[in-house]
Amino acid sequence: MTVTTPPVVDAGPDTPTAGATLRVVVVNGSPSRQSKTLGLVDVVLDTLGRMLPVEASQVDVYRLGPGFTGALERDDVTPDVDAMLRLAEDADLLIAAAPVYRGSYPGMFKHFFDLIDQYALANKLVLLAATGGGEHHALVLEHAMRPLFAFFQALTVPVAIFASAGDFDGVTLLNPRVYGRIEMGLTDVVDLLTSRATGVRATADS
Description:
This protein is of the alpha/beta class.
């Protein structure tokens, strides 16, 4: 199980400073500790952090342990796994990120959302991100991931983000086209993201 909460990302002099920070939770469906999926997410968070104050946390579903993998229902999970589920449920923005394998997202990724409360993601902003071996895998965003969150009545960001293996050097995203799509997707909803921010922003005096 991994949850990271880095300091608030301050985007510089043009960033709105009034109000709260955007609490972002990444649900990472990659089994690897370092992966192209997380490389893509890093760029999304960096781009978002230049637009507004952000506080980010990450849940790695492949490291949640037997208290997660052995649970058939929410009541079966251990307290630490329940805390991770609540973390995702309480996010201002959920980034659902997964590698594509055999035409869909991994089973562990789906299992995490099988345990999420049915109505906890209603009207919640969700950004979809995926990586795969080739461009044909991009269909997973619209044919698998978006319908999953439609079930929860979530508000998925219209522009979803996909990067293929050729867009990376190792786990570092290089393709400027993907950078541009991330910028476009977040710019389209930045006002809505700002209005959804609920976290209290720390000040230097405090």
